[in-house]
Write a structure and sequence with these properties.
The protein is of the alpha+beta class. The protein has 8 helices and 5 strands. The protein is elongated. It binds 2-acetamido-2-deoxy-beta-D-glucopyranose (NAG) (6 copies). The site of one 2-acetamido-2-deoxy-beta-D-glucopyranose has 4 residues, from helix 3.
Amino acid sequence: MRPFALLPVCFMLTAMILSFLCVFAGSKKGFMDDYHIVLLNTSRIGSSIFNTSSTHSGDNVFTTFIHNITDGIENELSSGFNSLAKQLGVHDCYSAHILDYCEGFFSPTPVPNATFSVGKITMNVTKCSNRTALYHFDPTQTLQRELNNSGHSDISLTDLHWPSAVDNGLAALRVAQRVAFVLYCIAIGMSSFALLISLISVFLAGRLSASINILVSFLAFLAIGLASAITTVVAVKAEHAINNHGAVVSISASKGIKFLILTWVATGLTLSSALVWYGECVIGRRKASKDLTSYTGGAVE
Ligand SMILES: *[C@@H]1O[C@H](CO)[C@@H](O)[C@H](O)[C@H]1NC(C)=O
Ligand SMILES: *[C@@H]1O[C@H](CO)[C@@H](O)[C@H](O)[C@H]1NC(C)=O
Ligand SMILES: *[C@@H]1O[C@H](CO)[C@@H](O)[C@H](O)[C@H]1NC(C)=O
Ligand SMILES: *[C@@H]1O[C@H](CO)[C@@H](O)[C@H](O)[C@H]1NC(C)=O
Ligand SMILES: *[C@@H]1O[C@H](CO)[C@@H](O)[C@H](O)[C@H]1NC(C)=O
Ligand SMILES: *[C@@H]1O[C@H](CO)[C@@H](O)[C@H](O)[C@H]1NC(C)=O
């Protein structure tokens, strides 16, 4: 019996559950849909046109559209009380998850005001895409499709001066999601294996089982550590790219802190599990050599 081995069992079990949640968070409306990798804020998309539309108009369909809709509500829109996205038929925000993306509107207001600070604004998810492993997160396509569906097919994202740097940031995100998905699957497989071996080791003392545990826990740690590192780097880079280049179309992005905490806690737990087994191995070896010394000491006597 090795009761202390229950500790890595707990670590691994929790890590496995958290890895599952990393993959399935936001996979359907209402299930942890605030655990996104990146959130794209399109609530004011195209509002930068307001500044230019007054100076030169007519050549751009979008400008005409703006002039049309702003007749009554121009002040409301330009002061940010209303969602321009809603007027255009697109959504306020799009969130990327490992398996899908969700879209929705900011609640209660898209732009913070005196009563509602940014922290109090939440995403009210209206729909999530179908869950498919290795899906494409392509908001460019989605936005254009939604524009077309809402009868604004004459407005293209080019009219809105959609920057290609934003597309590049999103392309990196797509690749990262695929790689991270595969790594999470490996991590889940490895941690279930480690869990099984740890459970057996509770009842079966021995250095061999401890060594196998170190190896398997470490492999689980490598897989989920790599998945966490990749999602973190890409979330940070996509946020930077979109915030730096998206200003011309008034879109912005933010990385999902909650998701990142989730994945790094899972990583920490697999590492702890590997370290506990490593410690057990070292202590076991010391004890074994001490036993051996006292044994030979006794023989000399
Ligand atoms: C519009 O112009 C005002 C002042 O001219 C400026 O402060 C604001 O940042 C501009 N808005 C956009 C979206 O470019
Ligand atoms: C602007 O409004 C007019 C009349 O309501 C309409 O015929 C025209 O199609 C509108 N243009 C755009 C770009 O929405
Ligand atoms: C979220 O959106 C739905 C549908 O538009 C609406 O009925 C609901 O009240 C919204 N929830 C919040 C918290 O704003
Ligand atoms: C969304 O973006 C707009 C324009 O960039 C910004 O004013 C607003 O604060 C953002 N909303 C949230 C909830 O971050
Ligand atoms: C802030 O926005 C909310 C929702 O649109 C509105 O009810 C509230 O009156 C606004 N507060 C201020 C101070 O403008
Ligand atoms: C999503 O799933 C529904 C029902 O399973 C299906 O009707 C629909 O075509 C799917 N959409 C896409 C884009 O695959």
